[in-house]
Design brief:
Elements: E1 3-8, H1 28-37, E2 43-49, E3 69-73, E4 76-80, E5 105-109, H2 132-138, E6 143-149, H3 151-165, E7 170-179, H4 183-195, E8 199-201
Parallel strand pairs: 1-2, 1-6, 2-5, 6-7, 7-8
Antiparallel strand pairs: 3-4
Helix pairs in contact: 3-4
The chain binds pyrazine-2-carboxylic acid and zinc ion.
Family: Belongs to the isochorismatase family.
EC number: 3.5.1.19
Keywords: Hydrolase, Metal-binding, Pyridine nucleotide biosynthesis
Length: 208
């Protein structure tokens, strides 16, 4: 049994003070640290939203558009975001309190300006893979626990892709180690994950 912990986008940009802040986003940091230090995982992977300046998901790249409204990217509907997690900026860095010493592998995503990548496994158009599937398969992973930011976007898409792309692997979502952008969206995301075969757990179910 090889157990992996997948920490999604625990970056300054998604924490209070960041460019796309998630309410209570920083509160996942101590929980993530406790999970990493628990000795329950053979492997810790952290994803990092890593956009080039002027990324197509930024409202600022679309004249006259405002953030948090639907727009279009490469002919497909796209939620438009504030500029966030630009490669190499403080906004894209992991939260300073995240204990990165436990991280075995960093998976960056969102580099293609023409398509967004909520999932740590592949772009939203499902054309390009990030390489995470092959990495986890090569490690012989049999269980993946997923948490982080934001529940209703990158965490949800990553968890559902994990079920789909790693057949036979048990996938769990750690609710209290995650925060979402929209409370209604979080409810729907949890229902959707459960429906796709993701088990919903809390850190207390895992921690000694
Ligand atoms: C995310 C919106 C845009 C996330 C990333 O990490 O959930 N959300 N980029
Ligand atoms: Zn992004």
């Amino acid at each position: 049994m090889t157990r992996a912990l997948l920490l999604i986008d625990i970056q300054n940009g998604f924490c209070p003070g960041g460019n796309l802040p998630v309410a209570g986003g920083d509160e996942v940091v101590p929980v993530a640290n406790a999970l990493m230090a628990s000795g329950k995982y053979d492997l810790v992977v952290a994803s990092q939203d890593w956009h080039p300046p002027g990324h197509g998901s930024f409202a600022s790249s679309h004249p006259g558009k405002t953030p948090f409204k639907m727009g279009e990217l490469s002919g497909k509907p796209q939620m438009l975001w504030p500029d966030h997690c630009v490669q190499g900026t403080e906004d894209a860095a992991f939260h300073p309190d995240l204990d990165v010493s436990h991280i075995d592998h960093v998976q960056r995503k969102g580099q293609n300006p023409a398509v967004d990548s909520y999932s740590a496994f592949r772009d939203n158009d499902r054309a390009a893979l990030t390489g995470l599937t092959d990495y986890l398969k090569a490690k012989g992973v049999s269980e993946v626990d997923i948490c982080g930011l934001a529940t209703d976007y990158c965490v949800k898409f990553s968890a559902i892709d994990a079920v789909e792309m790693l057949p036979g692997v048990k996938v769990r979502f750690i609710e209290d180690a995650s925060r979402g952008i929209d409370p209604e969206g979080v409810k729907t995301a949890i229902a959707e994950m459960r429906e796709k075969g993701v088990e919903i757990v809390r850190s207390a179910d895992i921690l000694p």
